[in-house]
Amino acid sequence: MDTAVLFDLDDTLIDLQYSRRLGLGAVQEVLPKLKRVPLEELELAHDEELRANYLRTLDKSLPDEESRLEHMRGICRRYGLETDRVADAAGAYAREQMSNPRLVPGVEELFKALRGRMKIGVVSNGLAQRQRDKLELFGLLPLDALAISEEVGALKPAPEIFRFALDELGVRKATMIGDSWEHDVLGAIDSGLDAIWLNRYRRTCPDPSLAVEIRGFEPVEDVLQTLIATSK
């Protein structure tokens, strides 16, 4: 096989949108004043808080428990909410979010269709053991390539992490599928790969000329055809 596909992990293969919404619903129960905020809006606010602390979380300078508190404090500040229940809200979010893991709909079927047809790899920013545990939990191993930033020593969108994955695949080119325009799409393109943008959050595409856009992995046949066309 000389064709290959690389996937991001979080919010591409693993459905963080689903578990996060359940977690934020639990937060609204602890902090009732946040019930006036539509869940979709609260989700985007939480996403911005995650991104603000992203690098500190990856380098472990911001431990998990403290990061959850910091994200919740940030949300409270955004909505002018003064409360002494930040720790309760953060705990409720963590319990609900972590107890409801699932794959993005269509992933299992897509992997079945791809195996034997294309080489499959994952390129992920994150802590190595945590990301490997997720892949193991959902039966996504073995893979033809696995590039995790903590092990590679480079973060997407740096070309080094994509080149590492290509070397493991034993190919010169591949198509990258991911939800982050900056890390997945631009990182892949700058590294000489093709890219497909998974836009499940219905964001405005920064530049349609750079990447094909999909909204999900269903129906699987449509995604396969898009991937095959992009890989030619």
Structural class, judged by helices and strands? alpha/beta
| CATH second-level architecture of the largest domain | 3-Layer(aba) Sandwich
Global mean pLDDT? 94
By CATH reckoning, the class of the largest domain would read: Alpha Beta
Helix share of residues? 40-55%
Instruction: Give unreliable regions as ranges.
Output: none
Largest sheet data:
6 strands, parallel
Question: What is the first-to-last residue Cα distance?
Answer: 13 Å
Q: How many strand units?
A: 6
Count of the separate structural domains = 2
User: What is the global morphology?
Assistant: globular
Order of helices and strands: EHHHHHHEHEHHEHEEH
Tally the helices.
Answer: 11
CATH topology of the largest domain, by name, is: Rossmann fold
What is the H level of CATH, i.e. the homologous superfamily of the largest domain?
Answer: HAD superfamily/HAD-like
| Estimated radius of gyration | 18 Å
Widest β-sheet, arrangement of strands = 3-2-1-4-5-6
Keywords:
alpha/beta, 6-stranded parallel beta sheet, Rossmann fold, globular, 50% helix
Please characterize this protein's 3D structure.
With 232 residues, the protein is an alpha/beta fold. It has two domains: 142 residues, HAD superfamily/HAD-like (Rossmann fold), CATH 3.40.50.1000; 83 residues. 50% of the residues lie in helices and 11% in strands. The chain has a six-stranded parallel beta sheet, with helices on both faces. α10 links the parallel β4 and β5. α6 crosses α11. The longest helix has 15 residues. The mean pLDDT is 94.
